[in-house]
Amino acid sequence: xxxxxxxxxxxxxxxxxxxxxxxxxxxxxxxxxxxxxxxxxxxxxxxxxxxxxxxxxxxxxxxxxxxxxxxxxxxxxxxxxxxxxxxxxxxxxxxxxxxxxxxxxxxxxxxxxxxxxxxxxxxxxxxxxxxxxxxxxxxxxxxxxxxxxxxxxxxxxxxxxxxxxxxxxxxxxxxxxxxxxxxxxxxxxxxxxxxxxxxxxxxxxxxxxxxxxxxxxxxxxxxxxxxxxxxxxxxxxxxxxxxxxxxxxxxx
Length: 252
Description:
This protein is an alpha+beta fold. The protein has 2 domains: 4-75, Arc Repressor Mutant, subunit A (Orthogonal Bundle); 106-236, 2-Layer Sandwich (Alpha-D-Glucose-1,6-Bisphosphate, Chain A, domain 4). 33% of the residues lie in helices and 27% in strands.
């Protein structure tokens, strides 16, 4: 992570923490940031300079305008450095916890860097025509429901439960080799699209699984999907590019 002392100094001022929250997930011109505070533009500029020096925000120029956006990656490890040793120790004398049912699931995390920007990459998961081009098989998306049949015959059906452009899709889905998936036993996945440092995007999937066998399968399945995304999303987003469909083949 960035220098811990510099980060701590930058975060010591409430105004700088408010600025960081303001630009945490969006890019704003310096004027818009200053307008959100009852402080002079020069004071806000000083605060922005401290945040930049600590690596907590990045600045880009658009003509005569300066635009700022937070760098969440700069805070990686900060919580771990500050957490006390007892934070994750379970309290043993809380009887209410036995009144609720709890279960632990396996979580699979698969990620990839792609050359297309954040918005283009997000659209590749919400526009059926583009999705079909980079996945290589027909994909339909209607009223939040999506469906696809892989070239080896596996049917995939699901629903986008939450769509937050251009960052997050929460989906429930299931699959079946021999027939259309039966509702009621869906899996839950979280797809995040982040801005990359080089103008591209970073795509990360968090997939819940109930068993080690499911987790192993999800690792392979999402690896295949994101691998195809990386390989084909740039061409798929260009309507002039010719991308052939994948030919049917046996599963094994």
